Amino acid sequence: MHKKFTYIVYQIIMAILAVISIGMLIAYYAKRINIDAYPYNMIDNGIWLAFFTDYVIRLIISPNKREFVKDNIFDLLSIIPASSLFFLFRIGQIGRTFQMLKLMRIMRLVGWVSSLSEMSCSTTCTLRLLS
């Protein structure tokens, strides 16, 4: 249960970072912000560092490095520093973000059902102990 909660929190954080990163890139290309100026450069670099660290850690713990790189090519391309050439690869994070949001809805439903079953089990067990 704790592992599932940690995974969901991790997915939520990564999804939020992806949305912020993409929003900043869109604002940059719409000439609303200067991503090279403070504080936007600090935010962008922090998000990049989070994505980079995430990718490296997942690569290190992966049993098959070649398969990992092949299966996560958009993640690899998204950690390449932003320039107009690599903008489309960072946009690839949108698909991953939507997948995470769908997974979060499913996990919420599963968590809700399992918590209901745990509550009914604990209530039944408590009633048995009291009688």
From TrEMBL:
Enumerate the spans annotated as Ion transport domain. 9-118
Q: How does it sit in the membrane?
A: Multi-pass membrane protein
Keyword field: Membrane, Transmembrane, Transmembrane helix
Q: Which GO molecular function terms does the record list?
A: monoatomic ion channel activity
> Where, per UniProt, does this protein localize?
Membrane
Q: What are the transmembrane regions?
A: 7-30, 42-61, 73-89
- Do you know which InterPro entries this protein is assigned to? Ion_trans_dom, Volt_channel_dom_sf
GO CC annotations on file: membrane
Task: State the protein's name.
Answer: Ion transport domain-containing protein
